[in-house]
Design a protein that fits this description.
- This protein is 29% helix and 24% strand.
- The protein is an alpha/beta fold and 203 residues long.
- The protein has one domain: Rossmann fold, CATH 3.40.50.150.
- An eight-stranded mixed β-sheet has the order 3-2-1-4-5-7-6-8.
- Helix 1 crosses helix 6.
- 39% of the residues are buried.
């Protein structure tokens, strides 16, 4: 749906803000922005690009007022090089809308041009049909679990579970992986959250 579940939003924002404070994040690609929820993460001096597959959402949710650039495209066929270099790609409740094999390819391509990726995905059975006439709202992969996400994406540095959502920070940069690990180690979750971090050594 164009609106995103609250799960892990505070953690995601605080993690990216902390990373930005030590290693500035200047160019952010928000995939499938819907109503533009993640623009609340924006920090001064950043450039935000929204990549939306369903063109009517651009006008309905006034995305051109929330992003510096809006691109209407299907990320499964997107030429990521047009955005390079990128600091963060946000996949907010997106990967459940495609087959697992497609999700793996999309994240791999994104990480070839981006320092960091943020994935947010339901980690319980999540069935959804098209909404507001948008066929892309249908959930294709309805049964992601936290264990499967970790096993599928080897570049995960850390994650949080909250409500029925799992949020994951990924990077292939040794320096960013180390910084993310250090930031995650200092994060104090509330009683309703679970944080998991991979063993990361300085690059």
């Amino acid at each position: 749906m164009p609106k995103s579940n609250y799960g892990c939003k505070r953690w995601s924002k605080e993690m990216l803000t902390a990373l930005n404070n030590v290693a500035p994040l200047k160019r952010i690609i928000d995939v499938g922005p819907g109503i533009g929820t993640y623009t609340s993460f924006r920090q001064p001096g950043q450039q935000w690009v929204g990549v939306e597959v369903w063109a009517p959402y651009v006008r309905t949710y006034e995305l051109e007022k929330k992003y510096d650039q809006v691109v209407v495209a299907d990320i499964r066929y997107l030429d990521w090089s047009q955005f390079a270099p990128v600091d963060v790609v946000i996949f907010g409740d997106i990967l459940e809308h495609m087959a697992k094999e497609e999700a793996v390819k999309v994240v791999d391509r994104a990480l070839r041009v981006s320092r960091v990726a943020l994935i947010s995905v339901p980690v319980v059975e999540s069935i959804q049909d098209e909404l507001e006439g948008n066929p892309f709202e249908r959930h294709v992969k309805t049964d992601w679990t936290n264990e499967e996400v970790w096993n599928t994406f080897p570049d995960i540095c850390t994650n949080m579970l909250e409500s029925y959502i799992g949020a994951y920070l990924l990077s292939r940069s040794p320096g960013d992986r180390y910084l993310i690990g250090q930031i995650a180690a200092k994060y104090v979750p509330s009683g309703t959250t679970v944080v998991q971090t991979s063993a990361i050594q300085p690059g």
